[in-house]
Amino acid sequence: MKVLVTGGVRSGKSFHAESLVVAEDVVTYVAPGPPADPDLDPEWAARVAVHQGRRPSHWRTLETTDLADAIKHGEGAVLIDCLGTWLTAQVDELDGWDQVREDWEPVLMARVDDAVRAMARTERTVVVVTNEVGMGVVPEHRSGRIFRDLLGVVNQRFAVECDEVLLVVAGRVLSL
């Protein structure tokens, strides 16, 4: 089973994604963004702590930006939370926020393709959490527009290989 769970910020998507694998004996929780630093962003660190606190103790947490490897070598079911933080880490690593997009985007898309291919080939359960973007205001800043556009493409690429795509709005789950 492969499931993409999307929705707005604080919609309940992570909680729902966790509920899809809570009965699994072995779960690899993939945290693909930078670690939360309470000194730099106490609000973000507090939200990460809430997520960590509700995970069963037997889940293995893997902090990595190599999604393809995490999917291939994760143990048991794989839960990735979330593609938005992964994308941010990728663009940071490629120094893309201030560079010409055409110079780094092919590398990013190759990484997306690797991860999607790994998900398509695995027989294990994979649940991917992502943010739904582009349903509101056009971002004022270039970085916001880049993020919105790229995450829309990334979401589509993952959704194609999923058995189910779920939209979470106000804690309610809609199957798409």
Folded structure, characterized:
With 176 residues, this protein is an alpha/beta fold. The chain has one domain: P-loop containing nucleotide triphosphate hydrolases (Rossmann fold), CATH 3.40.50.300. Helices cover 45% and strands 20% of the residues. Strands 3-2-4-5-1-6-7 form a 7-stranded mixed beta sheet, with helices on both faces. The protein is globular and about 45 Å long. Catalyzes ATP-dependent phosphorylation of adenosylcobinamide and addition of GMP to adenosylcobinamide phosphate. It comes from Aeromicrobium halocynthiae.
Secondary-structure map with pairings?
Elements: E1 2-7, H1 13-21, E2 27-31, H2 42-54, E3 60-63, H3 67-73, E4 77-81, H4 83-93, H5 101-121, E5 126-131, H6 142-160, E6 164-169, E7 172-175
Parallel strand pairs: 1-5, 1-6, 2-3, 2-4, 4-5
Antiparallel strand pairs: 6-7
Pathway: Cofactor biosynthesis; adenosylcobalamin biosynthesis; adenosylcobalamin from cob(II)yrinate a,c-diamide: step 6/7; Cofactor biosynthesis; adenosylcobalamin biosynthesis; adenosylcobalamin from cob(II)yrinate a,c-diamide: step 5/7
Protein name: Adenosylcobinamide kinase
Family: Belongs to the CobU/CobP family.
